[in-house]
Structures are given as C-alpha cells and as structure tokens.
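[stage:ingest] chain + small molecule (flavin-adenine dinucleotide)
[stage:ingest] validated
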Amino acid sequence: MSRALSRRRFLMATAAATVAAVPSRASELASDIRHWDMTVDVLIAGSGAAGTSAAIEARQLGNEVLVLEKLLKLGGSSAMSGGVIYMGGGTPLQKACGFEDTPEAMYDFIVAAGRQHPHLDKVQLYCEQSVEHFHWCVAMGIPYKHTFTDGKGLPGTDDSLYYSGNELTYPLREIARPAPRGHVPGVSGWTGGRTVMAALIAAAKKRGIKYLTQLSCERLIQQADGRVSGLLVTINGEQKAIRARKGVVLACGGFIHNREMVKQYAPELYNCSVPWGNMADLGMGIQMGIGAGAAAIRMDQGFSIMPLYQPTQVLNGIVVNQQAQRFVAEESYHGVLGYEIAYNQKGQAWLITDANSQYGYDDYRVKAVAQADTIDALAQQLDFPEGALQHSTSYFNRHAAAGEDPLFHKAKAYLKPLTAPPFFAYDLGVSSAFFPAHTFGGLHSSVNGEVMDAWGQPIAGLYAAGRTTSGLPTSPYIASGISVGDCTFFGRRAGRHVGGLV
Ligand SMILES: Cc1cc2nc3c(=O)[nH]c(=O)nc-3n(C[C@H](O)[C@H](O)[C@H](O)COP(=O)(O)OP(=O)(O)OC[C@H]3O[C@@H](n4cnc5c(N)ncnc54)[C@H](O)[C@@H]3O)c2cc1C
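[stage:predict] done
[stage:export] tokens:
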C-alpha cells in the first residue's frame, strides 16, 4: 500500500470516527414542544432498584409519580441480580446472628478497600444510615431470614447473611474490624434479585405509582434557562412529550451492552467475555444527561469478575501473570481478582494447581490448558519466561510450608505447598474464561441525586441514581451488594429530594 493511500485511509477512518463521536441528540427545547401528552410531578426513567426506590420515596411525599420502562418486564438488571445488598453498622440481622458492627468499621472498610478517592460524602451517609436502610428494605417487604453462612460466595441456601466481599483479606482484616454485611433475601437459589424487585415493585404499585412499559426515553426537555422539565419518549414508533412539574430522575442502568461506549470509555472491560446486565444497559440515561449538559465521571470503572471459587480447594493454587509471577492473594473477592487481571495484567492470568487443589471436573468458568508431572514441564507448555514459574512456585511452597505468604498474606486456610503431581494450569484470561463485566461510571451526582454539570453546579430539575451515576461502586469492586445498596439508598434520596421540591 502506497504511503499516500494509507494516509487517505487514515483520514477517512478518523473522519468517520469523529462524526460517530459527535452526540447526534442533545436535549430538546421546551419552547419547541407544541403539545404535552401527559403531565406528572415526578418522572422516572427506568424501573430497576434505583428508579423504583426513587419512585417510592417521591410518592411518599404525595407526588404523582410515573415510571417509564423500555422493556416489557420491570426490574432491569436489579431483578437479574443476586439481590445482595451491602448493609452494616449493626443491622438487626447482624445482631441476631451474633456479629458486632459499627458504621465506622463499615466506612473504614469501604474507604480502605476501594481505589483512590472514593466519593467520601456518599460513603459516610451510606454507612451512617445503613441500619435505617435495612429497616426500610424490611418495611418494603424484602424477606430476610436470621441466619448466617460462612460459605464463600453468594449463598445458594436460604441464609440471609454472609461475608460478601474482601473483609477477611490482608490488610483489610487488620484495618477495619471485619463483619459480614452481605444481606440477601432468605430464599434458596441465586435469584435474590427477583425477590428484591418483586417486593419493591409491589410496594410501589400499592402506593399508587404508575408504570408504563415498552417505551423508550430518548431525550430530556429543557427550558431556555437549562431547567429540565420533561422527557421525549418513543412509544410504538411515535414520539410523545411527557412533562414533569418537579423533575426527572434518570435511572436507566449502565452501558455494558453499548459496545462503542465500552470501547471508548472503559476499554479494559471490552474483551471481558460476558457483558453482564439486562439488554437495555445501553447507556441511554448517561447520554441523555450528557446531552443536557451533565458531567460524566469515572467512566473507565466497572465490575470485572473472575469467579475462581467454588470449590474452595482451588484457592490453594497460585494465580500468576504472563511473567509467571503472583500478583494477588488468591482468595480475594472475585471483583478484586477480576480487577487485577482485567485492569493491571492486560487481561491474562493462569491458575496453577497441583493434584490436590485442581478443580477435578470440567468447569464452565475456566478451562485447563496444560497438565504435566513437573512444574518445569508445565512452564514449558505455557511458554513462560525461563525459570519464572519454577521460582514463583518454589518461593510460594517454601513459605506456605511455614504457614506464611510474605508477598500477599494469603489466608492461612489456603496456604498449602503445591507438591502433588500432576500439576495443572487453568486459563483465567478475560476473553477465554467466564469473565462477566458491567460498568460503574456515570453521571456526576450529589448525595441527593442532583445531576451536576461540568462546573459542579446542579442542573435544575435533573436527578439520577444507580448505575446511570458514578456512586459507591468503583474499581476494584470490593463486595457484592454495594451496587444494589447504592441504587436503593441513593435512589431513595433522589426521590425524596425531587419529590420535596415545590
Ligand atoms: C447476574 C447479575 C448479578 C448481580 N448481582 C448483584 C448483587 O447481588 N448485588 C449487587 O449489588 N449488584 C449485583 N449486580 C449488579 C446490579 O444488579 C446492578 O448494578 C444494579 O441492579 C443496577 O440497578 P439500576 O437500577 O441502576 O439499573 P437496572 O436495574 O438495570 O434498571 C434500569 C432500567 O432502565 C431501563 N431503561 C434503560 N434505558 C431506558 C430508556 N431509554 N427508557 C426507559 N427505560 C430504560 C432498563 O430496561 C432497566 O429496566 C448483579 C448484576 C448481574 C447482571
């Protein structure tokens, strides 16, 4: 290919990219609306945990509330979830199971375990008011059984309390007094999200909140002074204008199914093999907000998951990178392990086990890609740098025999030298293993759900909650339940704030 031709191709490609990146739809001017098809006090886009919690609280203040849902079924990703809500500080469930906890310990854990600069104002309120939030969940009809399980991972039993995150790993177990804070509905199976959303939607409908489904919110309607006064929606191919006297709450979830957005904003998540979330996770809430002048922040962050356990014996193995070096305590919460692989190891890692710590069956999550009677032979099959795996294994084995892990302080329960042949290597790569991911970045919002512009000023009449915002969950994701916890807690605050405006 000639130099001139390749330059022309480059220019054409970048021109196309520029056109695609320009937002095709900003907001709509209220003065251009000739006819309002409907008027309510509070208009909510999205029927998941965030939207429904906002609706309930706005309705509680006497408002007429309408929830608009793009899909046929209500509940969004929240209904697909495990239904774990991260709560603590001494909830009645924690107390009934014999655990002491304080808002301070919960705060210390969230702040120390997350990445730099978490939203401290949100974390503080969330921890201080967690017990009240638990009472609200119970009042809305979410059923909890007063039993604890020490199993690792989401309970498949009907127990309602477990350690859902990284509380027991080093150094967190020393920084913040550990307590189990994963609160999950007391129903068997991994379908707690259905129970949570069935309860919240029933509570909303009982209070007179209306839902309209199969209707897509497309654009915000703004007055000349920037105030948001409604939504343009498409229903059966027709465009309608719905007016909101007090404000609009955007609660449309994240953007994991909008592949262009993921590529642009969160490239580390792009190759993760399972985009996790309901099919309307297309980022429309975020785009509508940006179209009306909102700032979007922490758009690169997300939940990338390497569900190594169960069975827990595999945690006796070691996880290594392309240089055959360990980089994490293997028993870390699967959001932390997944983050390390996706964000810090270029998406590649391997689990090395011996005969005693292997899976022992074909697991759909990870595949065995090498097997050998010696570590030398295993390393050769994997094409690791010469001597590197041998060094990592012998260093680990020497210290594990003494019950120590000087590098990552892996929990003693999983410190067993890898000495029994055959040895196995399992591929933990983001695109080859079962590696779910969803997004955490979103609109910049205050603790009351007000959406902020690029100058940090609230946009009048515009609110957002859940994965349409950047909230408590950041990368690495440190515990199951923080996302639905954030959705319900800050959804409620958004509903109260917009609902209380006169
Ligand atoms: C399998 C799975 C398990 C999970 N388990 C847990 C867990 O146990 N605990 C936890 O904390 N997190 C969990 N998560 C993550 C969590 O479910 C989500 O982060 C959270 O539910 C997002 O809630 P939301 O209200 O922001 O969005 P959603 O619940 O997705 O609700 C958004 C709604 O908006 C609708 N919508 C989108 N665009 C439009 C539009 N333009 N117009 C109208 N409606 C629109 C969508 O259809 C959807 O119904 C899990 C996720 C998955 C996929």
